[in-house]
Amino acid sequence: MAKYFGTDGFRGEANVGLTVDHAYKIGRFIGCYFGREHRCQVVIGKDTRRSSYMFEYALTAGLTASGADAYLMHVTTTPGVSYVVRTDDFDCGIMISASHNPYYDNGIKLFNSKGEKMDDQFIEELEKYLDGVIPELPLAQGEEIGRASDYSAGRNRYIGYLISLATHSFKGKRIGLDCANGSAFAIAKSVFDALGARTYVVSNKPDGFNINTNCGSTHIENLIKLVEEEQLDCGFAFDGDADRCLAVDEKAQIIDGDKILYIYGSYLKERGKLEGNTVVTTVMSNLGLYKAFDNLGIAYEKTAVGDKYVYECMNEKGYILGGENSGHIIFSKYANTGDGILTALKIMQVICAKKTVLSELAKGMTTYPQILKNVRVTDKNAVLNDADVLAAVKTAEEALGSDGRVLVRPSGTEPLLRIMTEAQTRDVCAKHIADIEKAVREKGYAVE
Known about the structure:
Distance between the termini: 27 Å
Shape: globular
Strand content: 15-25%
Mean pLDDT: 95
Structural class: alpha/beta
Oligomer: single chain
Number of helices: 15
Helix content: 25-40%
Strand order of the largest sheet: 1-2-6-5-3-4-7
């Protein structure tokens, strides 16, 4: 397991867990690694956090000191960086963002030349350099020193690409957008305006500190209020770097990632365009999604949590639709990573093509009540191998049968055991979580 980089990059509190020194060294390593046979070219994007400027300059200093050229897209979305790196022949793409985290956190996401999350072998070598295992790298000198250039044109091309993917005019549609005071603020409205929609936008005034603060896909109540007050056709909420999207229908009901997969998966199925007749999900998708897919004769794969794993499965097996309940949706014909604005456009495509409303499209899926409990523990691995804890999990699984499920897994970043249950009622969910948690506590693993 990587020491610094998780499934969505290197993330931590700015200048605490993730420092300027880390960023500089990452730039140094990338410049040398990809610049062994030619001058390395790297594109960099960032979100609206105050610390993103600091990390942008540190990465640029490291890259140019290693002889690489840095192309700065400035504030843009994560999928925007992924798009530009694969279409403009860059060696690597870097996005500075901590996604849906609060402003004081930040992160560094790396993409290969295909716009995909960087492979584990590269990350392993990079982490060795960060830890001083690899000797110090040579500095570029004279004409070999790299340069930094403005590349806002790349962001504009990405906007044009999104607009080109729309199959219908949105004229007459009243659409709400919650930009999370993040990357989407400079892009989303432009796209929907260009397609003829009448847009109503909230959380589009970033100040460096308000990204994701009581707004965006993690606080969708703002969008619900907007849809209700303005009587909109629907609304879309993004996260800080706009690689996620959740929706709200005309009745102000939440359309989460699972319902988005259901809506677009069934749309593709109807048209005979669902490759492999399969949608890729993670183990956190709701049981109601699987039952809805069963009714439609749609197959599904389940991966570990993380859009990286969803994409890997899709890429390996040739599937074209996959994603997470959180709103990371991947349309692999058009993008190699989750893209919140693209997701919104695809939902609008189905609404327009079927000449109906969003609530009608989602009614074929019934979401099962789900409860998630995080228990802080002394040893995640020990808990998951404890016979008494496993017996409690098995008892719950047998009691639920096909009308529910249990998922117990460790957090990838914290000393937490995540216990999730789904059933036909919340009371049943709560009972089985309490039984499993009791077993964990009785064996002395829980930390108060």
